[in-house]
Structures are given as structure tokens and as C-alpha cells.
Amino acid sequence: MTTDTTPNTHTPTSNPFATWRRLSPRETIAIPLRRVHRLIPLLLGAMILGNGRWLSVLATYAIVAVLVTEGLAIWATTHLRLTPTHLEIRSGILVHKHLVIPRDRIRTVDLASGYAHRLLRLSTLHVGAGDHGRIRIGGMNRPDARHLRNCLLATAATTAPAKTPAPTPLSTLDQRWLRYAPLSTYGILAVAALATFTAGIANDLNLATYIAIAHYLQTWTGNHPLWPLILIAATALLATLTLTIGAIAIYLIRFGRYHLDRTHDDILRVHTGLITRWTTLVPRHRIRGIEILESLPFRAVRAATVNALTIGTAGTRLTVLPPAPLHEARRVTALVMATPQAPTNTPLNPHPRAALYRRITRATLPALPPALALTLLAPTWTAITAWALLPLLAFLGWDRYRSLGHALTEHYLLTRHSAFPRHTTALHRDAIIGWHITQSWGQHRAGLLTLTAMTAAGDGCGHVIDIATADGLRLARAASPAMFATVIEEHGADRG
Amino acid sequence: MDAATPVALREPAIPLCPRVITYWMVPAAASWSLALLGQLITLFFIVTPAQIAAIPITTAVAIGHVFLLPRNMYRRHRWELTPEALYSLNGWLTRHSYVIPITRIQTVESTRNPLQHHLGLATVVITTASAEGPVEISGLDTHDARQLVADLARITDTHPGDAT
Fold first, then answer.
1. Interval A164-186 mean pLDDT
2. Which helix (H) or strand (E) holds B22?
3. Model confidence band, residue B89 (pLDDT cutoffs 50, 70, 90)
4. Cβ separation of B131 and A480 shorter than 8 Å?
5. Rounded to whole angstroms, what are the CA distances from A303 to A335, B59, B83?
6. By C-alpha distance, which of A357, A383, A362 is closest to A446?
7. Among partner residues A434, A441, A495, which is closest to B104 by beta-carbon distance?
8. Interface residue B130 vs chain A (CB under 8 A)
9. Are A320 and A268 in contact (CB under 8 A)?
10. CA-to-CA distance for A347 and A342, rounded, in angstroms?
11. Do B99 and A493 touch (CB under 8 A)?
């Protein structure tokens, strides 16, 4: 999106929005255009699945008709009016909304245009108005939009401070981060997409084509005895290439032009997205914790991604940093939580040996019955692979144990556990609503328990897994003394 | 707080109402009776050693589930309302303890299904802002449940705030 920076030179004399007016008619084209990129997979699916031609054509026409009708309906039902004291917006097809914004509450007015609007020479107005957050008024022609902005800013200038400080930038996308794309879950998404695509093509091509390709390759290599290996190597290379390109493409679409900043009134803003631009605003007091995620591939290359744990927003986890180097993750964590050092840097206390045995057992035990079954029933090489997997699983179990940790600072409860990816969570102690202490029969025998700090932010955070019973109780009591005052006893009673 | 002195979580003070044993026995008895009946009926049609051996095994498990398990569970489920927090303990193989400060409780309600109504029992459901979901204490005597709901409502009323 480009931002319109035409200087605010002309004084507003007449107000084109004095009475209720609709948006520009070209918006009826812009709305379907904006929807189209989201519906391309649907259109492709309709064309591919519709083997009979009439079905796919009908489906495509139906989808286009729905889009155009939606565009017309939205345009017809959206009205705008600017009075001396308020900005009013009426919209909604089935549910009628009437939004009234006092003009003296309007702090910021930005003009921007997405690619569809740029094509049609329209502008979108983004109005930032205190309690209402940001309101988007799309699809006015440029002179009108500029005029409206000047009117709104003229009022804003007289009631707001003369100079609104610019937001503090915190982080921006660095092109070097793209190399983490194939290692992230987006890489897996790319593999899934590739597999689906290949399966689709394989369905259409005949087996005869494969045989022809294989034959051709055989003759081309002069009947070299290792030609199947060349075929496999070539396929693997092609797959890796597609995977890398696909993963990078998905990363770019999701995190292209990522930008993190904080406004002067302490609202954190995350802007991200290449084609569809997302801006999420979170006031600082709603951020109750932060977590750093490192999957196994990321840990090998020292990369991480950061989520803020929030309350009162749609979805309690907010990605504030895409996959990026670890030092950048730590830097952004410190900036988001407004502490000199990232709270997640605190060294963590390890968990007892018993937890190690538990993790290794849980990792390897489920693999034993299949390995035994394969040894007795299947050819040797499958059995050997199955048994060879066991040390790998044991290593993963040991790694999960190594990832366990906890700490308590003055303001934060630190927990870390590895559920692939490894979560290092710093939760604000005020955000702890209660405690849930779990002890399975196995844990009871091993003298361990699992503490979960119940909180409204980021469901599933705040787990201290497999901590020694006494340490766990002491941690809980230290974190929330009032709750546990009468519940935890010294000099161990008969029950643990 | 000395790091060397052993600490332990004491049990909540109040056990559930003894009638909850009956409340747990009834559905268990019903389903196991159906299972045994099904096995006996199939025995009429297919007679194999496995089928014949299965019946005493099923009976043994049924007796354990219906008669022994509820009593054991009764001893392991307890609750308490301390001045600061609600403390509850439940679960059989895996024990779950909940400690929730009263000021953080958002809603309190009590519910009864027909079987509970007949036995004079109720379940108290407490929700907090936590994403984990509500905490339930089931198997309370109706009078105790009403008292608990009233106590919690009264205390949360005197502590305004959005309890997040």
C-alpha cells in the first residue's frame, strides 16, 4: 500500500460530504477485486474438480456473480456524512450499523491505497479515533478523500497537541530473514501444497507418461546401472527447490513489509502482510506476557519467533516477530515488554532427573510395540529402521527434558517447555488468575508434579511441567503468596 | 521460607456429600449391566472358549468399577473455601488441584441433572477469565452448594474489578 503524502495546503471551504453520500461507484469493482485474491484457490478448485466443463464454468460464473453482487450491495448500503461536530458512517447489508465519531476525538487520519484501489484511482481513509481504534473508509476518489482528510485534520489540529509525536519504530523485516522460511512451518505448508498439487497432476497424467519419462531417462543416461538413483536424486532436487520457493513465497505473503512500532500513547502496532495488509493494535496494558518459540530446525540455526500474550483482543496470541535471528527476538522481546533486558533471558532452574526418565520413557515407549511387531512379522530392513528410530526418539526425549525450566523474577513467571516448538514464556505475575496443579500416578511415584498458572492471556501458557513436588509448591507459594498461605504446610504432612 | 524444610500441599478440608457414591455407581452399574447382558446374549449364538472366559473377567471389572471405584474416588475428592481462595481436589489416576483466589472468580452457578436432583446433590461451576475453562465441584449436597454459591457471590461482590 502506498501512503498519500500530498501536503495539507488547501483550506476546506465547501464540504462535499455535508449530506449523506455514497462512496465512489468504482468501489463496486474494487470490492470484488480485493476479494478475488482470497478466492483464487476456490476458483482453481472449481475449475480442476469440475471435470465436466459445464460444471466448472457454472461454478466460476456463480462465484463471479456473488462477488459482483456483494460489491454492489456494500456500495449501495454504505453512506458517509461529515457534520461540523461528527463523522457518521452508515453501513451493513443485513445488520445496519451507524457509527458516529466525534471529530475532536480523531487523532490521526491516513490515506492509503491497496493495489485494487491504486488501479482504479481510489483512496482509503484510515481514521484513528481514540476508543474506536482505527476505522477504515474505503473507496473514495482521490480529491474527495484528500478533502475529507484535510477537514478532519483541521479539527483535530485545534484540539489535539500541535505535534503528535511519531511512533517509535521497533522492528522491520530484514531480507536476510527469508532464509528461515523453508525451516518454519511454512515450509511444511509448502510441502503439503506441493504434495496436493502433484497428486492432482498425477491424477490427470497417465501411468504411460511416467513409463515414457522413465524410459527416456534410461536411454539418455546410456542405460547406466545407477539410473534409478539419478531419477530419485533429480526428483528430490526438484522437490527441495519447490519447497524452498514455496516456503519463501508463503513467508513473504504473510510477513512481507512487516513493521513493528509503538505509538506515543503506548499502543503497540504490528503491520504485516504483502498483499493484504494487517495492522493489529494492542495497548501495552493488555500485553500480559511474551513467549519465544524455537522449533528444532530454528534452534539449529539460532532463529526464533515471538508471540505476545494479550487479553481483550481477538485471539490471545499475537505474533510480533516473524521467524528471525535469536538476537533480534531477544531485542524485540525487551522492547515489547519495555524492560531493559528481555525477561526471557533470565536463567532457568532445571528440573530433576526423574523428569528426564519420564521424558525419555514417554518418547520411546510408544515406539516399542510397532518395533517388536515389525521384528516378528515384517522383513528385516523395516525392523532395523524401527529399532534405529529408538535412539533418535530417546534423544528427542532428552532434548525435551533439557528444555524444561522455570524461574520467578520480581514481575514475571518464567516457564519453558518443549512441545516442538520450544516455548519460553514470561508471564506477568499479576496476570495469574489461579493455579492448577496436576499429578498423575507416574508423577506421584517419581515425586514430580505439573503446575499450570491459569491466566486469561494466551491459553496454554504458564505450564511448569515435571517439577519436583516440593520445588513446585514453593514456586507456587512464592508467585502467589496470598493464595497458598493456608494451603501449603511446612514440615511435610503425611500426604505429598 | 527455608529451602530445606519440606513442604506439602495439604488436602482440602471438606469431603463431598456421601450420596455422591450412589451418584457415581448408578451410571456405571447401568452400562456394565448392558455390557454383560450383551455378552450373555451373544453367548447364545456363538460359543467359544474366549467368550466363556470373557464373562467372569467382565464381571470382575464391573464389580470393581461399580463398587470399589466410587468409594475410592469419594476419598480423593475434596474441597474447601479458605478466606482467600477456593481450593478443590479431584481426579482418580491423575489428581487435579485448583487454587483460585475468590477475587478472580467471574461467575458462579450451580447445576443439577435429574439424577442429582433425586439424590439431593448439585454441581457448582466456577468460571474465571482463564482460557482453561470452568472449574467444577460436583457431588455437593444441595444445601452446601447453595451456601457456597451465596458465599462466593457475596465475596466477589465486595471486590469489584474485571478479574483478569
1. 79
2. helix B20-45
3. very high
4. no
5. 18, 57, 47
6. A357
7. A434
8. yes
9. yes
10. 11
11. no
Look up the pTM and report it: 0.67
CA distance linking residue A123 with residue A98, whole number of Å: 22
Q: Beta strand pairing status for A432-439 and B95-101?
A: antiparallel
Helix A353-364 with A380-403: angle, nearest 10 deg: 150
Structural contact between residues A89 and A79, judged by C-beta atoms closer than 8 angstroms: yes
Question: CB-based contacts of A456: which residues, under 8 Å, 6+ apart?
Answer: A288, A311, A316, A431, A433, B128, B129, B130, B131, B164
Give the cell for residue A345: 533471558
Q: Give pLDDT tens digits for A376-425.
A: 877 777 778 888 888 888 998 998 898 898 999 888 999 998 877 888 99
CB-CB contact of A182 with A42 (8 Å)? no
- The pLDDT score that the predictor gives to residue B26 is 92
Measured in degrees and rounded to the nearest 5, phi and psi for residue A24 equal -65, 140
Task: Tell me the C-alpha distance between A292 and A274, whole Å.
Answer: 24
Closest residue in B to A433 (Cα) is B104
Distance CA A465, CA A451 (A): 6
Question: In one letter, which amino acid is B164?
Answer: T
User: A444 CB near a chain B CB, below 8 Å?
Assistant: yes
- What b/e readout covers A62-101, taking b as 16+ CB neighbours within 10 angstroms? ebeeebeeebbebbeebbbbbeeeebebebeeeeeeeeeb
Tell me the backbone φ, ψ of residue A376, rounded to 5 degrees.
Answer: -80, -30
CA-based nearest distance A286→chain B, Å: 10
Q: Is A33 within 8 Å of A68 (Cβ atoms)?
A: no
